[in-house]
Predict the structure of Small RNA 2'-O-methyltransferase.
Amino acid sequence: MLLTISTTHFPADDLSYLLHKHPGKIQSVDLSAGKAHIFYPEVSDEKCTAALLLDIDPVGLVRSAGPKGNDFALEQYVNDRPYVSSSFMSAAIAKAYSSALNGRCKDKPELVDVAMPFTVKLSVLPVKGGELVLRALFEPLGYQVNAVQHTLDPTFPEWGYSRYFTVELSNKLTLQQLLSHLYVLIPVCDNDKHYWVNQEEVEKLLEKGKDWLETHPAKEMVVRRYLKNQRLLTNQALGGLLSKDEIKEAVENEITIEGMTDIEEPQLRIHELRLHAAKEELLLAGAKRVADLGCGEGKLIKLLLAEKQFEFVLGMDVSYRSLEIAKERLKLERMPERQLQRVRLIQGSLTYRDKRLEGFDGAALVEVIEHLDEPRLAALERSVFEFAKPGVVVITTPNAEYNVRFADHQEGKMRHSDHRFEWTRKEFESWGTDLAVKYSYNVIFKPVGEVDAEVGALSQMAVFSRRDEIAEQLV
């Protein structure tokens, strides 16, 4: 697949400075399943064209295949990936044109903010939804779109058209803006990605779309497709695109930005029960310095700050926008200085060791663990229990046995599309017991919510107490 970028800006060869690629050389960069070659078909003061040609190795593509579902058994062997502009092209843009994509130009930094006339050609681009979708994505950004749709087979015109287009886009803008649009919208057109989509993709999307996506009329479709239709990640990203006024509205109306559950939980009060249960356990343990890990929009933090026992409360979440909402909900900007010293919000991931989490009496993880794949859950265990080592750790998670009580229950369906697992009481207790033994904690298990005689409570809770803390209290 081929991407060319042309400009008639004078002098046109300024493009080579912006791209950090010498026009007299053919250069190559390695990709996960092939190579990207960069060269200049034409260079003059009047016009300059840079070409990015992808050479995808079909065998390497199979070997590097990640965890993705297949529509049929031989999809990884029989597909269009070596021949079309897809997420491989976005990856090539990020690697071959990284300086330009990030707004850097060493030799002529003044060019970064110069809007230039550009013409982009893509051969070929798969577009799910056809030309209407293609125009809906690019035209609101000021592009003139010229698209030629290809037939399925010229020999059999009665078969109709394929989803493949040769596309020409024209616009006047900075090169960084152009590359950011292409980086995001090429896989959106394709509605697929060649790699596993996780939390990092939310941050990439918000970074690359920070100057244009918030006002794009098709932003919901862009976000959903870019994140491969994962609901939790989609809602996090859309939350990240809210304006300050929209954040205020969300707080005032108690709107949950992170997304609703797929299965409606009875009474819609269970989350409040979890938060109060966590608070009571931390109070009972005598904790004074507490960390709310995966704090979301700050509801538990608000409960904890109402208790004088808690001298300091740390809230940590991977979502920056959730922290912005928490800041608004807690009214930190209007909080008295003495009260403000009791709370701190930080961004971070629980799957990495973080020294900021050390030295706390207690920690809470309310409905957090079930959103992690097993390898990442193991990393969280080490981060919390081996490195941070709070005196008491309160963890809540759904009780999978209770799901049969939901009116719309379906066998095998979890409460939330982003849940990686939902444990029975026996599974949760087995995990918690092994964890306590491994890291020298004692653990007790409790139900959260009304208990059904057959299937237990809607949620379940484990309270871990560090053994050396217990010994110190006895002395």
Remarks:
- The two ends are 71 Å apart (CA to CA).
- The domain at 266-474 is CATH 3.40.50.150 (Rossmann fold).
